[in-house]
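Dear H.,

Thanks for agreeing to be a second pair of eyes. The structure we're designing against is below in token form, covering all 144 positions.
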């Protein structure tokens, strides 16, 4: 499935995919939210891992989580440990987006589905989001 958008005309209604964006830096969060919206994603934002856990458990669930690892209060590491321990949300794929050294090693240790180093490049980001949402179609929302 390619990136989903809402068909405004006719009978066809295409599911929309929601990205849970977990980013504490306001400028980065706002820019990513705007970018992902342009590409047809619905975006919900969390400032830290605690807020992300709450949002991930709400309906409709996101089809993918884009996670910064360095966060206040509950960081990305703790978020991921708690996510994996919760049967209700452990199957939501996670994309780590971080500027930390040796991101690949951290991503493997956390069983992260994909990772991108900051600063992010648009094309790889969108390709990964499309791929992960296509693997997780049960979380898409069909507009009424």
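And this is the sequence the design step returned. I haven't edited it by hand at all.
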């Amino acid at each position: 499935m390619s990136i989903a958008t809402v068909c405004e005309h006719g009978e066809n209604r295409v599911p929309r995919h929601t990205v849970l964006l977990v980013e504490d830096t306001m400028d980065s969060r706002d820019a990513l939210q705007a970018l992902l919206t342009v590409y047809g994603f619905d975006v919900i934002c969390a400032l830290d891992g605690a807020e992300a856990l709450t949002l991930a458990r709400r309906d409709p669930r996101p089809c993918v989580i884009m996670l910064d690892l360095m966060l206040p209060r509950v960081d990305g590491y703790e978020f991921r440990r708690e996510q994996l321990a919760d049967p209700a949300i452990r199957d939501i794929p996670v994309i780590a987006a971080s500027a930390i050294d040796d991101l690949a090693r951290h991503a493997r240790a956390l069983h992260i589905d994909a990772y991108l180093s900051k600063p992010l490049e648009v094309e790889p980001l969108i390709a990964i989001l499309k791929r992960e949402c296509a693997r997780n179609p049960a979380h898409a929302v069909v507009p009424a």
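Two observations from my side: Residues 122-135 form the longest helix (14 residues). The domain at 18-139 is CATH 3.40.50.2300 (Rossmann fold).

Warmly,
E.
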